[in-house]
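Hello, quick one for you while I still have it in my head. I'm working through a protein record and want to make sense of it properly. Would you mind checking whether the tokens look sensible for this chain? I owe you a coffee for this, so here goes:
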Amino acid sequence: MADLNERKTPEEIKQRILEALNNKPLNAQEISKAINSNWSTVKNYIDELIGEKKIKEIVFGEKNIIYQKITGDTYYNLPIEEDQRQMLKFIFYNAIKIHKEILGKPIRRTDLAKLTYHINSELKLNLPIVWYIHGPMPLMIIDLQKDYSPGYMPKNSEKIKEHIMNWIKERRREKVRELRVECYQNSKNELYILKEKIYTGLETQKYDLIPDLFFEFLTATLSYDKNFEEIISEFYGIISGANYLKLFDNPQFQNKFLLSFDSLWKYIASKMLIDSLIKLGYPKDEIGILLGQVIETKSHLASENISELREFYLEHLPEKISPPNITEIDKEARKVVDQWLDSEVWRE
């Protein structure tokens, strides 16, 4: 192939490489074809761009290598369309400005994320909104210190501003949790509602509610994705036994439980992020490559924390469990409980 880059400067060639990576990661051969240049030239400039931290190398499978553009303004450097970027900047800028004018104080990141989700849903803007740890959020990172002064004015700019103003007036919430719960309820997302109830129960030390809430959480999680069955069932088994033994009164157990649940939720949320991206049209294989390590890390951390919780639980098992008080009317139930205790299945 003839090298058409002889008349171009190194900076122009590197710019073309970056433009080729705007929509998705590519390998060196694909970049070479996209910019109509030979492979050796492309590889040299790729190395330079890696050194300048403008692109990064991703290795997967058996020595397969692709290159991803570092956007600097999206989660995991995932690409978004330029018109989407400009629309999000327009919403961010006006939300920050209007919130300050109406309430006299800066907007919070959570408020801005949920506002953007609301505007996108109401006006059907088709913006890249994903569900992650704290619910729906724009794929573009919210940086409240950044200047989002728009160089772009959408056709429906006044309608967007009107919706921003109405949302801010109608949804004044002192606590971020209240805002999140309201968003989950409006979206009818049962899994996120239950997640929030469990965190609230832990923070308010209402540990007697945790087993029942977690059972509901288990059911909702398995309805979403049966691949979580093994890890979440193991967790529920520990919770059930710990509740019977009143281990939730132990501060060390409380801390270990919180760490375990938090890491489990982040693992589940990372899968929800991937599903959101696939729904937005990102290729499944590509997302698997880009976020595979993230999922693996979160899975490992959740398993590790739950294993430590299980060890703590086993260390605190008594030699013999006393059966619960059961009335004479419940003789058949007493028989079942005694058989269960004698079998020592509860130790497994």
Remarks:
- The chain has three domains: 4-70, 76-181, 189-315.
- The longest helix spans residues 284-315.
- The two ends are 67 Å apart (CA to CA).
